[in-house]
Amino acid sequence: MPTPYQTHIGSFTRKTTFFWAAVGATVGLANLWQFPYLASLHGGGLFILLYLGCLLLVTLPLMVTEAVIGRHARHGIVLAMDGLIRSAKRSRLWMAVGRLSVVSAFFVLSFTAVFGAIALAYVFFGATSKFSGVDQASATGILAGLVSDPREFRVFMGWHAFFLIMVLWVSGQGVVGGLERAYRIVVPATLVLLMALFGLAAWYGKIDAASSKIIEMHPQDLTWASLSAALFHAFYTLGLGMGVWAVLGAYTTPHTQLKRSILAVVLMDTLVAILAGLMIFAMATQSNVFDGERGFSLLFISLPVALSELASSQFIITAVFLVVVMIVWSTSLALLEPVVGWFREWTAAPRGLSVILVGLAVWLAGLVSLFSFNLWAEYLVGGATVFRWLELLTGGLMIPLVAVLIAFFTGWGLTRNLSKTMLGKTPGIFGAIWFWVMRLVLPLAVVYIGIHYTASSLGSLCDNGSEAFWCEPAPEMVEREGGGEASESVGAGESGSNPDKSTDETGELLPAEQAPENKPAQPQLGPESAPKDDDILYHSV
């Protein structure tokens, strides 16, 4: 095994590659299925301004910190932390920060690949006109047949393996021949295709109604919950706490203006979220299928229904989900890199072998999430599937913990000279803001995020009927059950479920024990057997 700092994991050859790679890493599914819902619920343009404020004041300093740690050491997060610990003469226990971030990236990648498999299947479904003339029930049946039918899990496994092979093949080509080339082609192509779809939405849809929801100011909708939602989305949408920014920082060329590039990435991520929101709202408003939805019900049910009504819907649906695949693929490629880089530095194995071994481990871990939607859907622990607990472990505990520890280490564990050296040339006011945000603001904000995330997730299990020990039935729930009224599931945090809509109208199949007796036989979504809005709150995808 090599001694520390004798390995070299690679480097980009062009200074602008960091920007394209970082955009690919940060623009994820949350831009499509979470941001439009939050903006429409929390004041439109005022929420966007609030979100930008949270990005610039809270999460941007952490992004810069992770990136400069990698650039300073020219290694992944584990060896980079090792070097800082040695330089600052701190306890070796701080090494847990780097290792925990790699584990977080591994777990998030394992279920991100499952989502990518669904999007990839939808590309082919769209190309073969499977969504032609579908309604809410039919679209739900298509999603259920792919994801939650125990008889068809091998088909789902095939899509999952297909998507992972796409990711692993590019990563195996190396940093320059694989990552750099792919990001410089795929990310701009994704943005161009997204702009084309936005133009199509403006032509066919109701762009004025979409602008009213997303961009116009609605002060009456702005509350303290809006600040919480903006803070949550700003933290979870940028791939923080998983070593991604450290390894991308390690790959930068000496001429890359790192801090300016990160600021540009933040602004680009926000712009993409706004464009995606306008596109989705314009299309959905056209067919009146969108009503406060988010997550899977928005992306994989309501959106295909809306697009199926357009002329040449076969090509439009294919293009839309091709964009989704490219977005998830870019994110997955970025999540794989910290794990592959760590494995190479730990074992000195060649890149090809490292990618194969790590990819095999990711595939096996992904099967846990995949089976949670079908074969293992009925095996619940505390009212949740294995996937739900894995998502909660990473999003509610591991990622916030890594962020807090990095903030404490850089804010309190390093000397001011070492911090300034690592940060590089920067305006004095930015350096001062960065220093105090890392010392005080960020730890408090992230602790709040982690606690609130966990409490909301556990609370949503209680809302969905869990009898876990932390669930205590609310008095109004007891009254409703005693009066024979069916209790409706409400979302965790700011889920925004519409209490006026029945389960069938939302496009989600009823649990098996609640399904009508005379309904035609088809795959049924049991409790927690398929991704729902409350299953995926703010995870880093």
From TrEMBL:
Keywords: Membrane, Transmembrane, Transmembrane helix
Record field: transmembrane: 18-39, 45-64, 96-125, 153-170, 182-204, 224-250, 262-283, 319-343, 355-377, 389-409, 429-451
One Pfam family linked to the record: SNF
Top-level taxon of the source organism: Bacteria
Basic and acidic residues bias: start-end ranges: 530-541
InterPro entries per UniProt: Na/ntran_symport, YocR/YhdH-like
Compositional bias per record (Low complexity), positions renumbered to this chain: 486-497
Annotated spans, Disordered: 478-541
PANTHER family: TRANSPORTER
Name under which the protein is recorded: Sodium-dependent transporter
Species annotation: Marinobacter salexigens
Lineage start: Bacteria, Pseudomonadati, Pseudomonadota, Gammaproteobacteria, Pseudomonadales
